[in-house]
Amino acid sequence: MKWNDIRISAIGGTICSIWASISLGDILQTVLTAALGTLVSFATSRMIGRWNNRRRK
């Protein structure tokens, strides 16, 4: 076996073992948590921006 074949085999085995341990529910929970975090971050930055604009006037 060549070094490249061993590397590809190791990567393939790693991906297969990770794929087997992740469920659809985990992926959906991650997506929803990321979306909620994005919305909260956006709303917070907008509120801070408005608060800073009011203080400057």
Topology:
Layout: H1 3-21, H2 24-56
The number of helices is 2
Helix/strand-derived category reads mainly alpha
- Element order: H for helix, E for strand: HH
Estimate the mean pLDDT confidence.
90
Intertermini distance: 71 Å
Strand content: under 5%
Number of beta-strand segments? 0
How does the major sheet shape up? none
Explain this structure to me?
With 57 residues, the chain is mostly helical. The chain contains two helices and no strands.
In short:
With 57 residues, the chain is an all-alpha fold. It is 91% helix and 0% strand. The chain has helices at 3-21, 24-56.
List keywords for this structure.
57 residues, 2 helices, single chain, mainly alpha
